[in-house]
Amino acid sequence: MTPRRPERRSEESARAIVQAALELCREVGYAKLSIEGIANRAGVGKNTIYRWWPSKSAVLLDGLLSAVSVQGPFPDTGDVVADFKTQMIAASSILASPDTGPHYAALIGEAQQDPALGSALWDRLVGHLVAAATERIRSAQQQGQIRPELDPEFVVELLYGPTYYRWLIRRHLPDPDHIRMVVDTAFAGIAPSGPAVG
Fold first, then answer.
1. Which of 21, 42, 45, 98 stands 20 to 30 A from 4 (CA)?
2. Does the keyword DNA-binding apply (predicted)?
3. Residue 42: what pLDDT?
């Protein structure tokens, strides 16, 4: 699934369509969201939407990306434990926000049936976040704060997996105390047994 098609002629209409998709998804849920409903809310024809997006999930993904930053450096104060707590607590606000959390959850769910959406979600959002985290992990490994033999992507799964499990399966929003406990528990296993170097 590619980003919004570049031949769009009206940024104003494109913004109205994306905003309509976000509003309707909040109001009726993803299952009842439709291209027809989005078009009616945005005041455009369905054909306009289909010229620029292949599906309702593509419109919603653009809406999510308009509200979520995937750029910016990962915190690096020299204390990798503190940095992951800071970043993960900040990132959890995306999951907790009614403006982003339900849309993200809906897209994750839909991606289980739509491989193109799954690829787009990874390429345009999740992959950027994972890359920033793995770079921070490699830096910590070089500094002797994380065991050097561990695959950085495994460490990402170990740290972030509990939050996604709690949010998607248990339906509990992650809170700062829970995230701090996850990070402390994970680092008890991934930190070197000897004193840190550097």
1. 98
2. yes
3. 95
Which tokens in the block code for residue 45? 């024809």
Domain boundaries, the chain: 11-66, 69-190
CATH topology of domain 69-190: Tetracycline Repressor; domain 2 (1.10.357)
Q: What DSSP designation does 146 have?
A: S
C-alpha angle 135-97-25 in degrees, rounded to nearest 5 = 110
Given a contact cutoff of 8 angstroms between Cβ atoms, the answer to whether 94 and 87 are in contact is no
> Residues 88-115: what's their mean pLDDT?
92
Distance CA(120)–CA(111), nearest Å, equals 9
pLDDT band at 173 (very low <50, low <70, confident <90, very high): confident
Residue 198 pLDDT class (50, 70, 90 cuts): very low
Domain 11-66 is found in CATH 1.10.287.3510: no
Distance CA 198, CA 192 (A): 13
Q: Is the pLDDT of residue 133 over 70?
A: yes
